[in-house]
Design goal:
alpha/beta, elongated, 7 helices, 48% helix
């Protein structure tokens, strides 16, 4: 009888300790919003990584400086990134690997971005963002007619690009599952679709890596 009672108390303690930890972290979240990304990671450690979302991106860009910039920036934001230097390499990579989104230049060697997009669209509705120096209306219309999800002209803003990628991915995944992935605990809400946290009505936007 005493053993059962002791086991019950130990089970209760083992359940309460993580909950107390989350409550403490919620308080720190409100007191130190500047450290929100680190606190979110600690909270997720207590709750478990239920979101488990890691997106794979394919960057198709023949300018090595821009290619390296995009790869480093997107990896820092928490994405898995593969790169292709021309249209043929892009199609080869795409045929052998599943990607969640493609960032596609137009002025590419061997096969241009329009051709790559047209061939991909014959077999897949993977989200495509065209990132190009071609800013003319006809160029943009042609890209949109090929069913690209967004068209961004160079020079471009990295923070805006990151948010456009997140928005396109949200729309794409929401089409697969209408229910948003949300973790709640008390006054804390973690939205796995938008990489946002809400505490007592206050919203905090995070990058995928911070989330």
């Amino acid at each position: 009888m005493e053993k059962k009672s002791l086991k019950g108390r130990l089970d209760y303690v083992s359940m309460i300790i993580p909950l107390l930890g989350v409550v403490l972290l919620c308080v720190l979240f409100m007191l130190m919003p500047a450290k929100s990304s680190y606190i979110i990671q600690m909270i997720r450690g207590f709750l478990g990584n239920d979101c488990g979302i890691y997106y794979a991106l394919l960057v198709v860009e023949d300018d090595f400086d821009i290619q390296e910039l995009l790869q480093n920036f997107l990896q820092e934001a928490g994405y898995e990134v593969a790169v292709a230097n021309d249209g043929v390499e892009a199609l080869s990579l795409f045929s052998g690997q599943r990607y969640d989104l493609i960032i596609l230049d137009i002025l590419l060697p061997k096969i241009d971005g329009y051709g790559v997009c047209e061939l991909i669209r014959k077999q897949s509705d993977v989200p495509i963002i065209m990132l190009t120096a071609l800013s003319g209306e006809e160029d943009q219309i042609r890209g949109l007619d090929l069913q690209v999800d967004d068209y961004i002209t160079k020079p471009f803003s990295m923070p805006i690009l990151l948010r456009k990628i997140a928005a396109v991915l949200r729309r794409s995944k929401r089409g697969e599952d209408e229910k948003p992935q949300i973790i709640t605990y008390g006054n804390l809400l973690l939205n796995c679709d938008s990489y946002a946290a809400t505490v007592d009505g206050s919203d905090f936007e995070l990058t995928q890596k911070e989330f």
